[in-house]
Write a structure and sequence with these properties.
Two copies of one chain form a homodimer. Chain A has four helices and five strands. Chain A is of the alpha/beta class and about 150 residues long. In chain A, strand 1 and strand 2 form a beta hairpin.
Chain lengths: ~150, ~150
């Protein structure tokens, strides 16, 4: 896929992140795309759902699996997420054998793709993921900064 | 808690693992205990649910969160699981701030507590978990071996 396609899907992930922001959630959004179509889109729902596992990526993965009917169908899919995945989500991406991970901005405190460790490309695990980082990085990063500034007020 | 308590809860996790075995699933079971009571118990449901994230630990965590109504309530809980958690489940244990992880047997191929990495005690993440390994190790390990022998037949 071309860079423009990546920006197209990341913009949808950003729309999802904006929804999380409006709900007082850490503004992270995710999209799963298969054959250039959106399969699922979701945002962080941790506070709303009282579920610390309801990260944008996990919700998008579960929705996609429900829709596609079988977990093996994600092996050609790409997951777009505005912020670098944490260890749980990186592990879920490996479990579901997603082909490509595209993320916006790094999470230097908990990122498990480049920042603290690299779970999605660990050669000892039974699946490795293609990674593209920095798509719409500034937009994704600014939304996070805006959220944490608003929290401090 | 005393060793006997740990064996009590691990035996329930083993009962769950036996249910998974009977369903043709990789036989892993999990229990979440709070104040010496069982809050949730679950087994691996990956094939049944067509969901590669439906590991025993994830299912038990979601059930416990639903039951307790708020994710912060797991901070005094112990999670018992027959096999060392993978990166996804180890990450979920950190996210939900579970106090204690007790597991039976190591997973040398994908374990993210001792075997390949240690996500639950990474000082860079915002929560670290107490770990007790090797409770009913032989029983947990033998059930896994029996399953993989039966698969090859």
């Amino acid at each position: 896929m071309f860079a423009l396609d990546h920006e197209f899907f990341m913009n949808i992930a950003l729309e999802e992140a904006e929804k999380a922001f409006a709900l007082g959630e850490v503004p992270i959004g995710a999209v799963i795309a298969l054959s250039s179509e959106v399969v699922s889109r979701a945002h962080n729902m941790k506070e709303q759902c009282h579920d610390a596992t309801a990260h944008a990526e996990m919700v998008a993965i579960r929705q996609a699996l429900e829709k596609l009917g079988h977990w093996r169908h994600l092996k050609e899919a790409a997951l777009y997420v505005t912020v670098e995945p944490c260890p749980m989500c990186a592990g879920a991406i490996v479990q579901t054998r997603i082909k490509t991970l595209v993320y916006g901005t790094a999470d230097i405190k908990a990122g498990a793709v480049h920042s603290l460790m690299n779970i999605v490309q660990d050669p000892r695990l039974n699946h490795q993921v293609e990674v593209i980082a920095g798509v719409l990085e500034q937009e994704c990063s600014e939304l996070m900064k805006k959220f944490f500034v608003s929290l401090r007020k």
